[in-house]
Amino acid sequence: MKEISCMVLALLAVLVLTGCGDSKPSSAAAESGSATVVNQESADPAPLSASADSVERSAKSKILIIYFSRVGISEPFDKVDAVSSASLPNGNTIIIANDIKEMTGGDMFQLITDKVYPANYDATTDLAQKEQQAKERPTLKSQPKNLGDYDIIFLGYPNWWGTIPMALFTFLENNDLSGKTIIPFCTHEGSGLGDSQRDIAKLCPKSKIVDGLAVRGGNATSAKPDVEKWIRKIGLHQ
């Protein structure tokens, strides 16, 4: 009788321990809960892409630096806009794109629109606001044809009215970047990345979005140390 009682007590102990184990969340569940780009101020419940602060670069990884800049598709510049520094002949976004190319060894590609943008900075931002309000999708006459060859994509742009230019909506809606790593970088005049990283994540739900870099336009020519620090942080310095 004593032996039976011991066996019953032992069985009850096993059942109790098993119940405690089931009540503890798995490590996979805990990790998946933090692997998203989250905007604390947004109530939008749409699922976003996986986010990361670094990239595992293999020997076979190919990098493409895609950027949009009105420089090269605008009316001729009469003079440099000293206030916004947005009329630099090389373009602020292009300057950062070139820094990234130098540090990563990636290829570069500029997105070109059919639309010609004004040389005047304020006129350009006014036009950009009208594009955004109309949800316009500017036609692209230049897009990379070998996009499938690349697994890591830097995506550069000026922050216009809090997010990516509408031309980038055109590009991201018409190209499947599933499985690719997307790394945003932008130039701005005070708004940082704004909502651009969140909007990229919405447009590319099956891509991994790496935390991006925002450079104030007036600092573009002297931002190389900051760009290099960021490139090393995300693990892509060659």
Would you write up a description of this structure?
The protein contains 7 helices and 8 strands; from the N terminus they run ααββαβαββαβαββα. It has helices at 2-22, 27-32, 92-104, 121-133, 166-173, 196-203, 224-233, and strands spanning 50-52, 63-68, 107-113, 140-142, 152-158, 181-188, 208-210, 213-216. Strands 1, 2, 3, 4, 5, 6, 7 and 8 form an 8-stranded mixed sheet that branches. The longest helix has 21 residues, at 2-22. Mean pLDDT is 79; it is low at 2-47 and 80-88.
Order of helices and strands: HHEEHEHEEHEHEEH
Helix content: 25-40%
Q: What is the number of beta strands?
A: 8
Major pleated sheet: 8 strands, mixed
Distance between the termini: 74 Å
Q: Tell me the overall shape.
A: globular
- Output the number of helix runs: 7
Structural class: alpha/beta
Radius of gyration: 24 Å
Q: Strand fraction band?
A: 15-25%
Low-confidence stretches: 2-47, 80-88
Please state the average pLDDT score: 79
